[in-house]
Write a structure and sequence with these properties.
Largest sheet: 8 strands, antiparallel
Number of strands: 33
Strand content: 35-45%
Distance between the termini: 33 Å
Structural class: mainly beta
Helix content: under 10%
Mean pLDDT: 85
Low-confidence stretches: 1-55
Length: about 550
């Protein structure tokens, strides 16, 4: 899709385009006719149509060698590589909660802490930009952004930055970026030093109170997302006007991340297209090249509630499901998403036209999604919660949100989320927002597993790299062996020297366990042939395999 500055799109255009994609995805026929000016938003390109129902799993018959070329880590999140499976199954694995909150409010500045924000790791420390819930006595601003840091990701401190004055003092942890839902990205050492950090947050210019925005005719009444830059993440400057203001007419939560592997900034922005009878909170995806940060693509619908979501909502006592937002974690070989699934209860939204919008009360938990390109997103097996609600009375029993707050560090994925014990309507005394932590070992969101003897055969494509490693776990004396085979029609045949009997058994628990054969090495395999890998499992789960560089 051609890039364009987002403020060239009207709300009607954006909604028309999103509704058109939803109609195609739901099997509702062709995209509605539009004027030529609307075509780039409303009419999906052929690759979008192929993946129109973004909630369906990938399948092997749609997978080509080119889809796998250049990848290093192959996580078993779906079925797209699987040629054959017996005695084993695809399994989903929830994250493990840390338990107690890792960050609670500083009563001198805040009444709660909200992780509509970002967590980064710079090789030495974890860095968090979060939203403090302002006190009612004028000591805060609804668009304040605060900062904390940690050496271990569990114990956090609030450094006194000396940047923003509150109550007559700058001895606080506030930064001078303003906006709701601040996303902070480190663009790396190749960026100009004064613009190493990129910040994006939503706000209404008169309340935002940034002089540069109020002094320009195209930005002084803007309600949308603002772009900032910084050398250190503490002292921020608005991007040049009017390109600093992006995504007019979009909703109030978003997540922006630096996808350094693909040279872009990726944003998941909430929108409310008409899905069946009602306006429903959904997720759109937009992007901008890192070397042209004001050149944003049109938002493209990525996740919206479907019939299965609504049936699951009814089964658990809610009326509907909506997507409150979605955090993202770009990795080299795919992107992981964290949809905030909002189980809507009760009646219609009181601030909207009757019968149009739902979703005033309800609870929210975190599911998991994944994408190979950042635009076509697929849901996890069974749509089970990755981070579920706590027990009644727990600090995280009500409403969980998670934006750009996932980081991979030393083989562990850290997932930070904010929560309160009450629902979206914030009952009195239950809006005590705190920030928690859940963890997943690298690539262990899903696995192919067997509690006895099993086998899974996957299409790998051409050999590359110097070796092979597996992310696996064996139990009760179990083991894993890898056999390399050639495809032969719908079947395959083993390659001499790489049969299961030649593979040294892999036991125990590790995210990067080397695969070795008795008399042959990975480099001995032909580089130009398609290969099939057969994993022989005994009381084991294989989560992923990796090509060593």
């Amino acid at each position: 899709m051609a890039h364009s500055t987002s403020h060239g799109f009207s709300r009607r255009q954006v909604l028309t385009g999103a509704a058109g994609l939803a109609a195609v995805a739901a099997g509702g026929g062709t995209v509605p006719e539009t004027r030529a000016a609307d075509t780039k938003i409303a009419r999906p390109e052929p690759d979008q149509l192929h993946f129109a129902n973004l909630n369906q799993p990938q399948r092997y018959q749609y997978t080509r060698t080119s889809d796998l070329a250049g990848r290093r880590r192959f996580a078993f999140l779906d079925t797209r590589q699987i040629r054959e499976i017996a005695g084993a199954e695809l399994r989903f694995h929830p994250a493990e909660k840390h338990g107690d909150p890792v960050l609670e409010c500083d009563s001198s500045l805040e009444t709660g802490v909200l992780l509509y924000g970002s967590v980064l790791h710079d090789g030495q420390r974890f860095r968090m930009w979060y939203q403090p819930i302002a006190k009612k006595n004028g000591s805060g601003n609804p668009y304040d952004v605060a900062y904390a840091e940690s050496s271990d990701g569990i114990h956090w401190r609030r450094p006194k930055l000396g940047v923003v004055a509150r109550n007559g003092s700058t001895k606080n942890n506030l930064v001078n970026m303003r906006g709701h839902g601040p996303s902070v990205m480190d663009l790396g050492p190749d960026a100009p030093p004064e613009r190493r950090y990129l910040g994006i947050a939503v706000g209404f210019a008169p309340i935002l109170g940034v002089p540069e925005a109020l002094d320009h005719p195209q930005t002084r009444r803007h309600h949308g997302y603002w772009m900032y830059y910084s050398a250190d993440g503490f002292r921020w400057h608005l991007y040049e006007r009017p390109g600093c203001s992006i995504f007019h007419h979009m909703s109030d939560t978003a997540c922006f991340v630096h996808d350094r592997y693909r040279g872009r900034i990726l944003g998941s922005v909430k929108l409310e297209p008409r899905v069946r009878l009602f306006d429903r909170r959904s997720v759109t995806i937009a992007s901008a090249p890192t070397d042209a940060l004001t050149n944003w693509s049109a938002p493209r619908l990525a996740l919206y509630p479907d019939e299965l979501d609504d049936r699951m909502a009814v089964e658990r006592g809610a009326r509907f499901l909506e997507f409150y937002g979605m955090g993202m974690l770009p990795t080299r070989d795919l992107l992981i998403g964290f949809p905030e699934t909002y189980w809507v209860e009760g009646g219609l939204h009181p601030s909207q036209v009757a019968g149009v919008r739902l979703g005033w009360e309800g609870k929210c938990e975190i599911q998991m999604a994944y994408s190979y390109d950042g635009h076509a997103w697929h849901r996890s097996l069974g749509r089970k919660p990755l981070i579920g609600l706590g027990k009644t009375g727990d600090w995280d029993a009500g409403f969980l949100t998670m934006q750009g707050s996932a980081v991979e560090v030393n083989g562990m994925t850290h997932l930070y989320y904010s929560a309160c014990p009450g629902g979206h309507a914030f009952p009195p005394g239950q809006n005590t927002r705190k920030i928690g932590l859940a963890t997943v070992r690298q690539d262990r969101f899903a696995s192919i597993g067997s509690d006895g003897r099993g086998m899974v055969e996957v299409f790998h494509g051409h050999r590359s790299g110097a070796g092979l490693a597996v992310n696996s776990q064996s139990r009760d004396g179990g083991e894993l062996r890898v056999e390399v085979r050639r495809p032969k029609g719908k079947h395959s045949e083993p390659i001499v020297g790489f049969e299961a009997a030649d593979c040294r058994p892999i036991r125990g628990d590790g995210i990067r366990q080397s695969v070795a054969w008795k008399n042959r090495t990975w480099r001995d395999l032909p580089a130009g042939e398609n290969l099939v890998l057969r994993f022989q499992l005994v009381n084991s789960d294989v989560f992923a395999y990796e090509v060593k560089s």
